[in-house]
Each structure stands twice: as C-alpha cells, then as structure tokens.
C-alpha cells in the first residue's frame, strides 16, 4: 500500500536519528558500576553528530531562520558538517 507505514518501518530517515542501542561491556567493569557503550554509529549517517545536526536544523526551521529549500552553511570538515550535509538531502528537513 502506497503511503502506508507499518509498525517499525519509517519513510522518514530523520525518525531514525537517536534511539541508538546500548551495549553492555562487562569486561570493562571492576565492581564499581555498569559500563555501557552508546552505539551512535547506528544513526543514519553513522555519526555521533546526527542528533545535534537535526536539533540545529529543526530549531532553525522553527525560528524561521531556515526555509524549505533554503541553504545550510557550516564551516566544518568534521562530523557536524557530515550530518548537516546528510540532513540537507532529506526531504523531511529540506
């Protein structure tokens, strides 16, 4: 069915940002606590900065600083720039 989204299936990549899994690492525990690793590479662009970039874009849209089809400029060669470039290509945020 066109347009129908089944449970657990999305048509919007931005819905996959965050909610990344946690991995228990008992081999690094020494009896003082639990060690968990947040697997941010499960984000759509495999970047820890997907959450940050999505928040920045949504805030800019909400505050009318970024219009649909507008241009995103970020002076970086790091993960934030990669995430912003990915988001710029997503129709849900563009």
UniProtKB/TrEMBL annotation:
Q: Name one GO biological process term.
A: cysteine biosynthetic process from serine
Keywords attached to this entry: Pyridoxal phosphate
Q: Does the keyword Membrane apply?
A: no
Entries under PROSITE patterns matching the protein: CYS_SYNTHASE (PS00901)
Q: Domain Tryptophan synthase beta chain-like PALP: where? A: 14-88
What InterPro entries does the entry give?
Cys_Synth/Cystath_Beta-Synth, P-phosphate_BS, TrpB-like_PALP, TrpB-like_PALP_sf
Could you confirm whether the keyword Ubl conjugation appears in this record? no
Question: From the UniProt record, which GO molecular function terms apply?
Answer: transferase activity, transferring alkyl or aryl (other than methyl) groups
**Cofactor(s) annotated in UniProt:** pyridoxal 5'-phosphate
Give the top-rank taxon of the lineage listed in the UniProt record for this protein: Bacteria
Q: Which Pfam families match?
A: PALP
PANTHER family found in the cross-reference section: CYSTATHIONINE BETA-SYNTHASE
Could you tell me what this protein is called?
Tryptophan synthase beta chain-like PALP domain-containing protein
